[in-house]
Every structure is written in C-alpha cells, then in structure tokens.
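Ticket #4471: structure export looks truncated?
Reporter: QA, pipeline team
Priority: medium

Steps to reproduce: submit the single chain below to the structure queue and open the exported record.
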Amino acid sequence: MHEQLEHRSPSLSVKYVSYSASGDFQASRKPVWRIKCALSFFPLLAFAAGLFLAIAPVQAGNLLVNPGFETNSGHVVASGWTYFSPSPPTNYFGDYWVESAVPAHSGTFYWKEWGALYLPAPTNNVAGIYQTLNSLPGTVYQASGWFYTSASDLLGTNSATWIEVNFLDASSNLLAVYKSDNFSASVGTNTWFQYQVNNACDLSSPVATGDPYFTTYAITGSVSQLVAPPGTTKVRFRFAYLQAGMEGGSAYLDDAVLNQISGPAGGVAPPTGLVIQSGDQSVILHWNPNSETNLAGYNVYRSLNGAGPFVLQNSSLLTSLGFCDLNVSDGQAYFYEVTAVTANSQTSLPSSVISTVPNSFASDDAFLDYVQQANFDYFWYEANPANGLIPDRTANGSACSIAAVGFGLTAIGVGIDHGWISRTQGVARVLTTLNTFLQKPQGSNSSGMIGYKGWFYHFLDMNTALRAPNSEVSSIDTALLLSGILYSKQYFNGTNSDETNLRLLADTIFNRLDWTWMSRGTNAVSMGWFPSGSFVGNNWLGYDEGMIIYLLGMGKTNSPLPASSWSYWTSGYTWATNYGAAYVPFPPLFGYQYSHCWVDFRHIADGYMNSHNCTYFENSRRATRAQLAYCVANPSHWPGYSSNVWGLTACDDPYVGYEAHGAPPAQNDDGTIAPTAPGGSMAFTPEYSLPTLQYLYGNYRTNLWTANGFRDAFNLRNAPWYDTDELGIDQGPIVIMIENYRTQRVWKLFMQNAEIQRGLQQAGFVALPFMALRIQDLPAQNAVSLAWTALPGRTYQVEYSTDLDAWFASPTGEVIATGSTVGWTDTGPPGTAATPSTVPQRFYRVFQFGSP
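Actual output as written to the record:
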C-alpha cells in the first residue's frame, strides 16, 4: 500500500513515508550482580564478626595462629580465639582444649568439637572457633590444619568439619572465602590428616548448612596461595564443625596454621577495576587509580594463557591508567595483569587476570563502538576523580581545559548509554565536577580563583581547580563547559536526590554568568578577560566555533544578551564558493564542529542561512567536503594527502607547536593531519569520515592508536612525525559526533533545554518545512522512488531511517528543483546504507531549504 504519514514534534510537523522489504508501504510507529561482597552471614556470624579480639600485627613469614593450641588447657578458649555456636544454644555438650583421649598431633593440647545441638528440635548446626588479624590488600597466605576422629567417638556419617580463611573490608564485609576440603567419617579414623585451605569459593552461591546462623559457599576451583583482595583490612581464620541432626561424634583439630608468605610489596595494593576491549589487532586495558601517595606508575604483563608465565609489555613505567597493546594477532587469546610500582621501585602483587581475543571488525558499527569507547576513556581515566577536572592533553603536568570538561560531561552520558560505565558512576562524577565549578572561589585576584563574574578560566590547575598561570577567563571555553553542563541537566532526569541536586547545580552555574559584563553592555561578546582588568581585544564576530556563545547568552532568562547580538555576529560572515561548494568559510574544521556537538541545526535556519537556501548543518557539510576536495587536489603536494588522508584543524604540528590549520582557503597548511577533523565531521559526512578513520586506523594504527583513541596529529613530510599526546578537545568531538551520527541522542537531549530554545528563537531561527511525499516501489530495479511538489530553484534534502528514531541525510539526496515536481530514487549505496530490499523497513522524509 502507499500511505503518507505525519509525525508531529513540539516544534515541527514532519511528513514521511515508509517502505517495507515485502514491497508494502505502510504506517509504522516505534517509540523510540555486581556481586556485592557484603558479609552475607546470618546473625551468628554477624555477631561473631563483632567479637574480634586483640589484632595481631602482620609480618611476613610469621605463623599467625598458634599451631599447637598450647596456650591453655581445660574447658576454655585459648587467647586470641573466639568461640561461636548456634545462637541461642538451648543446650550443647562441650567444645574445648583437651590433653587426653587421643595423642595430639604436636605438643600436648588440641581442640575438640562435639555435640553442638539445638534441643529439643535437632537440625544441622555449625560451631567452631575463629581468630581475626589485621591484613592489607595483596598479602599472601597459606593455611592448613590437621584433623582426627577416633573409632570410639566417630564423627557422624553426614557431619563434616573444615577450616577456612575469610578476607574482610573495614566494614566487615566479606570480600573472599577460601576453604579446605571437608573432613568426614569416610576419610578414616585414629590418625591425623592434614588439610590445606586451597579452594576458592563463589560468594554468589551460598550453600545451606541447615543452620540459620551460618552460610558457606560453593567451591569454584583450587588455588596455591591466598591473596588478600583489594579493600582487605582483616583476615579471619576459622574452624567450622557441622553436626548433622542428632548424629554424635567429635572432630579434633590441631596445628591450625595461617602462614603469611609475603606482605603487600612496599605496602602497595594491586591495581583494581581492570576493563579490557579489543579491536582489529589491538587490545586496550584500563584500571582504577591506586591511592598510595608514593606511587610511581604501573607495569602491564601479558601471557598466552591464564596460568602464565606473564611477560612485561611496557618499556617504561606507565603513569596513566591505560595501556594499548598493538603487538597482537587476531583470533589469539591474550591474558593480562597489572602491577603498581612505588617511587622506591617496590612492586605490588599482580591484579586479577583479564583476557580478550582481538578480531577484525565485523561491521562498521563494531569499528565505531571501539573508536567511541577508546576516545571516551580519555575523559574517564585521565580525569581527576577528586574534582572531575579533565586535562587539556595527556602530557605529564597538563593543566585542565574547561572545554575538555564540557566535552567530558557529555561523553559521560554517551558512556552510560553504551554500558561503559554505570549511571551511578556517571552521576557521582558529574556531581563532583559541578560542585567543583560551583564551590571554588571566584574573584578578580590573579591567583587563587576559578573564575570571575560566573565565567571560568580557560586553564585550571588539575589538583586545586584554580587558575593556571597566564590563563584568561575564556568566553568560548566557558560556553563549551556550559554546553556539557546543560546536556548533563537533561540527561540526568531522575527523581532521586542525586539527580535532582545535579540539575539544581547546573542551573545555578548557568544562571550566575554575567553576560552584560563579558559584553561590556553591548551586543558583542569579548573573547576573554585577564585579571589585570583588561578584556581580550577581539570580540566574537563572524563564523567560527563561537556561535554557541551567542545562542546561550541570548537564552538566559535574566539579563540575557540582546537579540541584536546575533545580527552583530552574522555581520562578519562571508559567502564563498570553494571546490564547487558554496558556504560560509572558516578554514579549520573545528569551527564547524564544536557548536554542532550540541545544537541540532539540521532542520532549522536563521535569516542568513535561509537567504542562501542553506542550514548551518549543511554549511558544515559543504565545508567538510570542500576540505576533502582540497586535500585530494593537494596543491602543496604534501605526502599522504588523499581521499582517505585528510583533516585540517587546530592541532599540534612538528614545526610551530599548536596551531590552527585549515583549508580552503589554505591556512597554515603544512602537511599536518588531525584524526579529530574527520572524526568530528562524522555527523556531516559519514560517507567520507568513516572510511577515513578506518584507513587511519588500518594503516597508521601503530603510531596513532592509543588507550585513549587517536593521537592528536601526524605529518608525513620528510621523516614522518606522530604526536605523542591525545587532547580532550580532540577526543570529545569524536565521541559526540559519532553518537550524533548514529543515534542523535546528544542533539535530542540538549535541544530540550529551554535556554537553547530561547536563544535560537531570539536569533530568528525557524523550522524548515517538510514535504508531502509520493512513493513508488520499483522491484525490477530493486529501488524505491520518491516524488514531491517543489518550488523551482529551491533545494531539498532527503533523509531516511529504519526506526523513526535515528535519521540519516542521504549523501545523494540534496536535490535542486528545476520544475514543479522533484523526484529521487533510493537504489542503495551511496544514497543509503543498503538497497531497499535488504532492510526490513525504511522511512523517508524530505525538507526544503530556505524560508517557507
């Protein structure tokens, strides 16, 4: 059937038609454990955990538990031990040190456990003794004990006894359990048997003992040493006796030994929180930071199997929280562990082992997942978790870039959506960040301040969050920070106290900006201010990344920028044609990307763009294609430039340092290519940006790919040069614009802000009209044909979707009407991602450029 559908949003009426692979055209509407290692014992063990006696010091090599029970005799519990039994016991017969009945394994005394019964209703009951000592993460132990049952006092057939080692955190939560095999009547009588504690237990799989006050756990495998896990503050050595029903009998224990093999080397805990991902011939590891104040860095070890041997992979100590292994082959399993190293070269025990199997990318989506997550990791692992600040670059000693923080706040939402971090983690990090920017002092002093008049310094000290030397209060970098804050305000829309408070913080930070001060009471915003009292000489005028400043300033509810500010801003535009594309030129591509990370300009236009039958989205698209054409033409004959090696923007270079490179027209083009340029244009030109990123990864991976995604830049002139740093203002547009291409989620959320809607309205933006479409199936050609009534000379854009949620501009769908009717045919690539018959359904819509 052929049916025209209408979809309405609050600001726009969109007409689209749908196609299904069956040949029908139809209406279709589609809306768009952690295992908490808590002390999960029943009340008896919770009670026992509160009976810790004097805590012994931890020293490597000591026998931490009296092996022969020689301290006391008689019906008492020896010093250092605590007795536990079913609580409350209505009756039990006796548990004590003895020196008769059977010969001790060593010395004179041993422990006897028997007849721990509930009366009058017998059940399975557990009793025993334990001792608790201080411990630290990474401490290594071995534990064993000797068991005996006599023929005259035979252990019951269904009863059993064992020893176990528990590791506890500061709140007495259980972190790990290791136990010996069970000793039972089937083992034998009248002789001592040694049992090693070498079974690891699964804390998620409790095993009922029948005793309401005691739980043990299923065994998952054997270990040779017992290593205290991260968070350990205490180790508990326990002997347990399970009496089955009314069975009689006794179990005897002697020479119970908990032997510390080694302490945590240098007092350094092993790294925790390891995560791993892999792509085509590469593996990326990340881990959480250690808290030791004398930490120098980390080492990464690799093995081809989980048992080792593990071989050091890094040539020098790692000071960041990530490692990228580029010396791997697809299809091979690799196992990794990480150690922490102190300033005096003391090394922790290894982390837990983590593994992966790299493989070639199964699809474009798999490649984009890998690229997005790696670049996201910059914002998660390079940040200071204590204040949320993100460094300008990965170089040691880098200051915080507040623009990078804005990109990073947005990347957190993307990371949650993809499952790279939890929402709880994201909320905590964003709250920390917003509190930093709200609570740190503002003022006119040249030091000790985070900003002035609500605005913020461009660069901040990563630890103090105060002005970095020589930094200016920056209007554009504050605006980019605010964009991330406003995005977070929309993303974290929950009703719980944390997310409610987060939104209040966001509003407070945004609303306290003094726009009148930064514009000096005019309609022109200064680029910045120095604490000497002087404003930067230039205002934001003409097309570049500063568009977001005026839109936010005009959207403020109290004392906004005047509406005339937009006219001032656009008065600096020029309209030019480069390589066959007509648009407003600004040579470096970042000027076409930064504001677009948040503002969805696809279907709206101001007076200037309407007068040129264009949109700012289309303007960026044309500029990107013009730069690609420039690089293919390569007028300076730089090595490498091609349809797969292009991307001129602000970046490092081997000649000057950090500089704005761009074209056309050529601006500081010295042969330096920045991967963020094609990556940040993904939403505009996926047909070119995606193949370019794939080419850069495939051909320059060993020099460009890192644990944080792509390096900043490279230059193939003379001896090829590759930057050593990754930059926050590079990685941010890559993460965000890939997301806007794939799902448009960042655009959708940010555009819900009343502030940006007011700003757009004040600037004169209007929604563009969507056309009523006619659709025809062309099965013989495996195609679908669209037609609509048009105005001669006007430009139209075809978009398509498979789910009415994410829409894609067809690279061949920009059509200029030559008559009153326009037609366009979907035959698959390059116009759409696949031929119509290969997708279950496809929706189309067409909008018109220019004033309605």
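Status: closed, not a bug. The export was complete when the record was re-opened. Leaving a note from the reviewer for reference: The chain has a mean pLDDT of 86.
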